[in-house]
Write a structure and sequence with these properties.
Elements (H helix, E strand, L loop, with lengths): L1 H10 L1 E6 L4 H6 L2 E3 L1 H7 L7 E5 L2 H10 L4 E3 L15 H10 L4 E5 L4 H5 L3 E3 L4 H7 L4 E5 L2 H10 L4 E4 L5 H4 L3 H10 L4 E4 L5 H5 L3 E2 L2 H10 L4 E5 L5 H7 L4 E3 L15 H10 L8 H17 L2
Parallel strand pairs: 1-2, 1-3, 3-4, 5-6, 5-7, 7-8, 9-10, 9-11, 11-12
Helix pairs in contact: 1-14, 3-4
The structure holds 1,3-dihydroxyacetonephosphate and iron/sulfur cluster.
1,3-dihydroxyacetonephosphate (13P) binds next to loops.
Length: about 300
Amino acid sequence: MEEIRQKKKEKNAVILAHYYVNDELQAIADYVGDSFYLAKAATGTNADVVVFCGVSFMGESVKLLNPEKTVLMPDAAADCPMAHMAKVERIRAYREQYDDLAVVCYINSTAELKSYSDVCVTSSNAVKIVRALPNRNIYFIPDGNLGRYVAGQVPEKNVILNDGYCPVHKAMTAGFIREARKKHPAAQVLAHPECEEGVLALADAVGSTADIIRYAKESDCKEFIVCTEEGVAFRLRGDNPDKSFYFPDGCACCQDMKMNTLEKLLHVLTTGENAVELDEALCRRAVLPLERMLELAK
Ligand code: 13P
Ligand code: SF4
C-alpha cells in the first residue's frame, strides 16, 4: 500500500474503486462509490492518470469523459457480462418501428452500445432520467430487470424491455429472502434493481449501491438482508458497526470485480499497462449519451 501511495504521487494519479471490489482496494482508493459517482469523479480532478478498480465499461466511461487522461485497469480482462447483452440490429429495428424512440442505455454497456444510444443512465438516476425524457417510447438496454423496475416507476412511458441481466443479481432468489427472513424476522430487505422482479417485490427499499448504503445508515433498523454484491459490506459494516448485514449465500460475488487486486494495481501504476484505448470516432459518438446523462441528472 505504501508503494502504491508513492507511485500515485510520482505519476499524479488517482484511484477510483467501485463498492464491489475487494476491501483493501476500497481502503486505498481516493474515490469509492457507485457507477454514477465514479463516472463523474475523475472529471473533477487534475490527475493525469486514473486507475479504475472495477470492470471495463467503467474504465471506458471515464476515458470517454476524460479523453486527455490515461485510464488504467488493474486487470484488463475484468468485464461485466451484461455490458454485451444487447443487439445493434434490435436497436435499429425499434428505431424503424417507433418515430419517437429513445434508446436508454444502462451505463453497464460497451462503448459500442453507448454509441447507438440516446442517453445513459445508472441505477441511481434511471427513473429520474427516463421520466424527464420527452419521448414516450423507450427501449431500455441491456438490463431487463432494471428496465422493468423503471417501467413500474414511470407508468406514463412505454418501456420496451431487453433480455440482458446481471448473473450475480439474477442468482439471488425470492426463496433466499424468505429463508433469511425466517432467520432474521426483524431485518429489512434492501435490494439492487438488477435483482429479479420477485426479489424486488419483497424488498423494503430498492436502490443503487449508494442508495442501499445511505438507507442502512439512516434507518433505525439494526439488521438488513442485502441483495447485492457482497463488496458493499465493507462500507456498510464500516459505517454501522452496531448493525448486522446478511447476504445471499454463495451467489453475492462478482468474479470480475474480484479480479482487481492490490498487486495488479501497483503493477499498472508502475508500468502503465492496461491503458484503456478507444477508437476516436467511436469516442465522439459514445460520449454523447454519457454527457446527456450528466446534464439530465443535475
Ligand atoms: P451501481 O454502482 O449503480 O449500484 O451498479 C451496480 C453494478 O452492478 C455495477 O456493476
Ligand atoms: Fe456486471 Fe453484475 Fe458484476 Fe455489476 S455485479 S459488474 S452488473 S456482472
